[in-house]
Amino acid sequence: MRNVLVGIASLGGLLFGYETGVAAGALQNAEFSWTGTSDGQLLLSTATLLGALVGALAGGRIADVVGRRDVIMATTALFTLGAFVSAIAPSSLVLLAGRLVVGLGVGAISVAAPLYIAEIAPARRRGSLLCVFQLMITIGILAAYVGNEVFADRPDGWRYLLAGGVIPALLLSGLALVLVESPVWLALKEDRQSAVAVLKRIDADSSTEEVEAIARTPREDRGDDLAEVFSLAGRGAVLLAIGLFFVQQFVGINAMIYYSTSSLAVLYESLHFGGQDWAGLSLAALGVLAALVAVALIDRVGRRPLLLLSLTGVAVGLATMAVGAGLNASFTHAYVVSAAGLYLFVASFGVGLGPIPWVAAAEMVPLRVRGLAMSIVVGSHWLFDSLASPAGLLLRREFGGPLLLVLFSGVALLGWLVFRRAMPETNGLSLVAIDRHFTERAARITDSRLVHYMATGVATMGGLLTGYSFAITAVTLVLIEEDWRLGPLQQGILASVLVAGLAAGSFLAGPLSDRFGRRYVLMSMAALFVTSAFGAALAPSFGWLVIARTAAGIAIGITSPTAGLYVAEVAPAAIRGRLLSFEAVAYGLGAILAYCVGLGLEDQPAGWRTMFGFLAVPSAIYGVALLTLPESPRWLAAAGQLSAARRSLVRLYGPAADAELAAITDLKRVRDAESKSAPGGRVRLWQPTYRPAILVGLAVMFLIVFSGWDMVLFYAPTILKEIGLNDTTVSFAATLGLGVVFLVMTVISLTIIDRVGRKPMVVVGLFVMAACLLVMAGLTTFTSGVAQWGQVASLAVFVGAFALTLGVVGEIVISELYPQAIRGPAASLSHGMRSVFAIVFTLTFPLLLDFPGLTVTLVAYAAISIVGALYLMRALPETKGRSLEEIGAYWESRRSAVTPVEVPMS
C-alpha cells in the first residue's frame, strides 16, 4: 500500500511541474487575445511564483495543525479553481487572479507532499520514494510542453493548456480519499495508538520503533516553535536545506528551462526537426529520464556522493556552454558545443541537484516542527525562483553570454566545496536519527553568533528599501517630467517631499518605538512601504504622487533609527559595530537595485510606475521576515516585561541569557531610581548627564551632511556636469560607478570596524574627505581633460572614504552612544535633525554653486570637515567592545567629580 500512497501524493508533483511548466516555458510563444502579444506570459510566471511563495509559507504551519493529508486534499480545490479561472479569463486581471490561486496550491503542495512521503517511507527507501515526487515534477513539465505542441495551432490554444491542469487536480482529489494520515504527524500529536495503527495499515511488517520514539519525545509549547526552528540544532538543518535550494536555483536552471533553447533551436533547424518547440520538449524529456536515474541510484549511492557528482556535471556543462558562447562569433557550428553543454547540464541537474534538495529538506528539518520548518525552506525555494528568473530573461535576450554562464558555473563549484564539507549522509537513517545528528552537532558548538547575524540581516532589510527609495527618485524624475510635463517647481517638490517625510518620521521614531516596541514599529512601517509603493505606482495625479512619496519618506524616517536601535540592543558588544554596518550595506544594495530596475524599465510605457510599484515586493518580504524576530530584550526590560525579555534573550544568547538579563535588570533598577526625580519627555535629553552625548550625536549628524556627502547623494550628476562631463550617459554611468564604490567600501568597513574602533575611523575619514575636496577645488582652476578626470577620481576617493568611515560609523555611533533611558528619543532627535540639516543643504547648495561657485563651496565643506574632526577628537568616546550599559555609565561618570575606573573610555 505504501507505493500506492506515494504515487497518489506524488500527483502533487505532477501538478507542481505542469503548472510551473505552463507558466514558465510552454507558453512563451502564446499570444493572448486581449493584447495580441505574449505579454501574458509575464503574468503567468510572476503570479504563479508569488502565489507559491505565500502558499509555501502558510502551508507548513497549516500542515502542522490539521495534518499533511488534509493539506494535500485542500490544494486540489485551489488547483481546480485556479485552472478554470485562468482558462476563461477575459482580461489580464482575471488571469492574474487565477494564477495566484494556482500558485497558492503549488506552494502548499510543495510543502505537504514531500513531508507526507518522507513520513510514510521506510528509512532504506525514503530517498527513492521522495525522488518520485521530483520525477512527477519533470513529467508535469514534459506534459506542459507536449500540450503546447498539441494546441500550438489552435485559436486560444493557451486556454486549453491552462484548463489542462484540472485533469490531474480532479484525479488527485478523488484518489486522496485513499490517503491515510502521516504516522509521524500522529506521533507528534501524542496519538501513539493511531500512529501505530496507521503504520501497520501501510505495511504490516513495518517497525513501530520510530513512531514510538517520536511519541516519547517531549513536546515544547507551541509559542516556542519558531525558536526551535532557529535553535542551534534547528537552524543547522534549515540553513543547509536553504543553501541547497539556493544553489539549485542559481546555477541557472530557470535560464535553461524557462527561457532556453536558442542554441538548440539552431541545432534542430539544421537537422530539420523544427526548432525551438522541439528543443524545449527534448529538454523536458531528458529531465524525466534523469529523474528516473535518480530514483534508481539515490538509496544505493547515497545523497552526498550523488549531489557532488551532479554539481560536477552541472559545472562542466555550464563551462562547455560558456565556451560555445565564446566561439559563437567566430565558429559557425559553435551552437553544437553549447547544445552539448546544455544537455549535460540538464542531465546532471536532474540526477542530483534537482531532487536532492527536496529529499534533504523533507528528511532534515527539525522533527518537532517539521511543517513550520519545511514552509520556511520551501518558501526560500520560491523566493530564489522568483529572483533567479530574471537571469533567464537576460539569457533569452543574448543566449550564451559567457560571463553569465561562468557565473552560474562558479555557483555550482562553490556549492560543491560547501556541501562536500557540510552535507551529512542521511541514507538509511530514520528521521529520529537524523534529528539526533543535528542536535549532537549543535552540542559541539560552544559559541555561535549566527542568530545575531540573522536577526540583524532581517532588521536592516529596511536599509535596502531606503536605498531603493532614494535612488529611484533620481531615476524616475526624468521619466515623470517627460510623461506629465512637470515644471521646475513641481520637480523640486517631488524630490524634496521624500526628505520632508523622512524628517517628520525621524522625530516620530523614538516615541513610537519606545511606546510600542522596536519590532512592531518596523512591521507597521513595512506595511507603509507597501502602501506608498502602490500609491505612487497608481497615482492618478501629481498631488497623489506627492502624498505617496511623503508616506515613503515617513516610513524611511521611522524605519532607519528604529532598526539601528534594535540592532544595537540585540548585538553582542564584540560585534556590534559590524552588525550596525549591515544597514549601510543594505542601503548600497538598494540603490544599485534601483539603478538596475531603472535601466530595465526605462523604455517601457509609464515605466516609472512599475519602478515605484516594484518596491512593494521587497517591502512585503521584509514584513513577513520580521515575524521571525524576537523583540528587543532591552526594550522589554525597560518596559517591565522581564519574562518576555528573558524569552527573547534565550533566543539570542541561549545558555547565557540569564547573565545578560541580570546585567540589563541591574542597570534598570538604577535608572528607575534616577527617573523618579528626573523630568520626562524630551526635556530629559538636556539634563547635564545627557547633554554632552546629545551634542556629540548632533555634531556627527551635522558632519554627515555638511562634510559634503549630501552633495554626492542629491547632486552627483550636477557636480559631474560642473566638472565638465556634460554627456548625460557618461554622467549617469559615473554616478552608478560612485554607487559601486560606496557599496564596496561599506563592506570593507564592516570587516574592520570592530578591530580599528569608531573614533580613529571617523576622525581620519574626515581629514581624508577634506583633502579630497581641497584637491577637487584646486583642479577646478584647470580645464584639461586630465584635470576633469582627476576631479572624478578625487570624488570617488571622497565617496570611498565616507563609506569606509563617517557613513557607517556615524550611524553606529548614534545607535550605541546614548544611555538606555534616552536612547529612543535621543536617536529620534538625531535622525530628525539630520533630515533638517539635509533640507537646509539641498536648499543652499544650488545657491552656493551659483555664487560664490564650486571652488569656494568645496573649500567651505573641507573646512567644516577639519573643524569637525578636531571637535570629535576631543568629545567622541571610543565605544568599541563596550556594552551599552558601559557606554551609558560613561556619560554618568562625566557628571561625577570622580573619574570612574571600572569603565575606561578613550
From TrEMBL:
<feature type="transmembrane region" description="Helical">
    <location>
        <begin position="158"/>
        <end position="180"/>
    </location>
</feature>
<dbReference type="InterPro" id="IPR005829">
    <property type="entry name" value="Sugar_transporter_CS"/>
</dbReference>
<keyword id="KW-0813">Transport</keyword>
<feature type="transmembrane region" description="Helical">
    <location>
        <begin position="372"/>
        <end position="393"/>
    </location>
</feature>
<dbReference type="InterPro" id="IPR005828">
    <property type="entry name" value="MFS_sugar_transport-like"/>
</dbReference>
<feature type="transmembrane region" description="Helical">
    <location>
        <begin position="399"/>
        <end position="419"/>
    </location>
</feature>
<feature type="transmembrane region" description="Helical">
    <location>
        <begin position="580"/>
        <end position="601"/>
    </location>
</feature>
<comment type="similarity">
    <text>Belongs to the major facilitator superfamily. Sugar transporter (TC 2.A.1.1) family.</text>
</comment>
<feature type="transmembrane region" description="Helical">
    <location>
        <begin position="450"/>
        <end position="480"/>
    </location>
</feature>
<feature type="transmembrane region" description="Helical">
    <location>
        <begin position="129"/>
        <end position="146"/>
    </location>
</feature>
<feature type="transmembrane region" description="Helical">
    <location>
        <begin position="96"/>
        <end position="117"/>
    </location>
</feature>
<keyword id="KW-1133">Transmembrane helix</keyword>
<feature type="transmembrane region" description="Helical">
    <location>
        <begin position="826"/>
        <end position="848"/>
    </location>
</feature>
<feature type="transmembrane region" description="Helical">
    <location>
        <begin position="305"/>
        <end position="327"/>
    </location>
</feature>
<dbReference type="InterPro" id="IPR020846">
    <property type="entry name" value="MFS_dom"/>
</dbReference>
<feature type="transmembrane region" description="Helical">
    <location>
        <begin position="546"/>
        <end position="568"/>
    </location>
</feature>
<dbReference type="InterPro" id="IPR050814">
    <property type="entry name" value="Myo-inositol_Transporter"/>
</dbReference>
<keyword id="KW-0472">Membrane</keyword>
<feature type="transmembrane region" description="Helical">
    <location>
        <begin position="278"/>
        <end position="298"/>
    </location>
</feature>
<protein>
    <recommendedName>
        <fullName>Major facilitator superfamily (MFS) profile domain-containing protein</fullName>
    </recommendedName>
</protein>
<feature type="transmembrane region" description="Helical">
    <location>
        <begin position="520"/>
        <end position="540"/>
    </location>
</feature>
<feature type="domain" description="Major facilitator superfamily (MFS) profile">
    <location>
        <begin position="455"/>
        <end position="880"/>
    </location>
</feature>
<feature type="transmembrane region" description="Helical">
    <location>
        <begin position="237"/>
        <end position="258"/>
    </location>
</feature>
<feature type="domain" description="Major facilitator superfamily (MFS) profile">
    <location>
        <begin position="5"/>
        <end position="427"/>
    </location>
</feature>
<feature type="transmembrane region" description="Helical">
    <location>
        <begin position="71"/>
        <end position="90"/>
    </location>
</feature>
<feature type="transmembrane region" description="Helical">
    <location>
        <begin position="760"/>
        <end position="780"/>
    </location>
</feature>
<feature type="transmembrane region" description="Helical">
    <location>
        <begin position="729"/>
        <end position="753"/>
    </location>
</feature>
<feature type="transmembrane region" description="Helical">
    <location>
        <begin position="792"/>
        <end position="814"/>
    </location>
</feature>
<dbReference type="Pfam" id="PF00083">
    <property type="entry name" value="Sugar_tr"/>
</dbReference>
<feature type="transmembrane region" description="Helical">
    <location>
        <begin position="692"/>
        <end position="709"/>
    </location>
</feature>
<dbReference type="InterPro" id="IPR036259">
    <property type="entry name" value="MFS_trans_sf"/>
</dbReference>
<dbReference type="InterPro" id="IPR003663">
    <property type="entry name" value="Sugar/inositol_transpt"/>
</dbReference>
<keyword id="KW-0812">Transmembrane</keyword>
<feature type="transmembrane region" description="Helical">
    <location>
        <begin position="40"/>
        <end position="59"/>
    </location>
</feature>
<dbReference type="GO" id="GO:0022857">
    <property type="term" value="F:transmembrane transporter activity"/>
</dbReference>
<feature type="transmembrane region" description="Helical">
    <location>
        <begin position="492"/>
        <end position="513"/>
    </location>
</feature>
<dbReference type="GO" id="GO:0005886">
    <property type="term" value="C:plasma membrane"/>
</dbReference>
<feature type="transmembrane region" description="Helical">
    <location>
        <begin position="854"/>
        <end position="873"/>
    </location>
</feature>
<feature type="transmembrane region" description="Helical">
    <location>
        <begin position="333"/>
        <end position="360"/>
    </location>
</feature>
<feature type="transmembrane region" description="Helical">
    <location>
        <begin position="607"/>
        <end position="629"/>
    </location>
</feature>
